[in-house]
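Hey, quick one: can you model this chain's 3D structure?
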Amino acid sequence: MNETMAAGGSPDGLLRSAFSTPGSSEGLLEAVATLESALRAHPMENADPFLLSGLNGGAVAALLSAWRREHRRQALIVTPDRESAEQMAMDLETWLGRGEVVHLPQQEVLAFDRNSPQPALVGDFLDGLLRLRSDQAPLAVTSVYGLRQRVMAPGTLDRAVLRLKVGDRVDLDELGTRLVQRGYRPAGMVAKVGDFARRGGLFDIFTPGDEPLRVEFFDDEIISVRWFEVENQRTTVRGEEAQILPVSHMLLDDDAVLGVLGAVEQAMAAANETVDPDFLDDLEARLEDRLLDDGLESFLPWMGPSAMVMDYLPDGTALFWLEPTQLKAQSDLLDSELPRLRAGRLDNEPVLPAVEDLVLPGEKLRHPRFQHVFVAASWIAGDAEARWLQSVPSAALNYITTGQTLRGGNVQELKADLLRREAAGETVLLLCDNQGQQGRLAELLEESGDATAATVPLVAPLSAGFSYSSATAAPGARASAAAVWSRNAPACSRASTWCTWNTASAITGGYASSAWKGCSASACCWSTPTVARFTCRWKTSTRWNATAATKAPTRLWPAWAAAAG
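Sure thing. Here's the predicted structure for all 565 residues.
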């Protein structure tokens, strides 16, 4: 096992690096086999969804990552909101490795908002949609609003992607026009995604990603393609060709402009509204100027074909709906907010597309092309608040979870627990955010007590921990031993994972009244009269026991320490 990096710094992910020892992942593979058997016993033709219950904390990401790795099935995981989608995507990437997960980020504005979404978010979203259509489509994650919003149609997206290659001849004025049609804005120097700048024979374009693109021309011929750092203009990568993604869901070419103007006139005529020439002139000017920062996305359905995220998914894709009760609450909130936003826009604009033309109604999410799976930490049969997709599960697989008992920042207690588990034959993982935290935690464990624990810290950030035991199947699913996880519930912070401690060599326990701002008044804080400070979050998770007969839950203790100056 690599003692330095397990996921966050490894392209292979935690599943490969941490479970490389023969037999170490036996329990996890049993859990995956049980899940796959249950899903196969519940085909898409069954109109009702399947339920996975008892999965808490980071357990969902671990199970679905291992399932994806073993069976390579395409799946979309839908979470209640933006934050949970981001967290799930990061956890999945920790387990699977870089490039194995697509995060379709929820835009920061809703439909009918007077502001346009950030180009960086839209660019990442469209990049994810392209990857979903590839031969090796990765595991995808989005929020319920990200799934419900209308997006650029597949055919339009194909047309909107620009490709530049060394040796191509390109009209630079035409290139600038095409960039503006795709949501880019001219700037003196590129500073953020969506900027482009032309200086002599250099054309800088900040496409989605961390680094902008620089295309060098001799007259109208491309002679070099490279990427560079914004801060120092230093070239980082050279290439022969580049792909430029749009940063808007609208491809505002001449056909789209004419389509919107024609649809507006038809809608006003159908509503017996007098055509307001001032409004039409203003709208035409906004469209002609490609003012993609004033909410023109509200007219997307009138610009030509549009699509949903589900249109990018092949038949048979598994849709995992995380926490149906929360999904329903967020979806209902969206349904109540959108008409209000639309009404506000109608105060100044006489016609707009209908709400259902911009945002898919919730009842249409239950598409027969896909296999629908509910995932919940707990489930109460008959609970009206959990009636997601207007349906109830007809079969279930229950994962029984256990939580951690060790909390706080007591390194001696942690080390004693490690030694006890190692003596019992359990395999333990210690996970840290980065190498600096890893090194400090290793020092603290080495300094604490006489005995030396065999377990060494690894680098792999996870949002929450869990432990494994067994699973039971309800009617419709095959009963078998599987994996169970539980969520850690520390005492402080909005993320329910942070604790603060100040330490040098010895640690004494106690509650602090003045704590790091992320903790509540009763935060679990530990201090000694020293100047060294570390911020740490503790969680539990599972390393599956290699002995299938015992099924003893083994724990993963991600202890994260970050220097705070």
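One thing worth noting: The chain has 14 helices and 25 strands.
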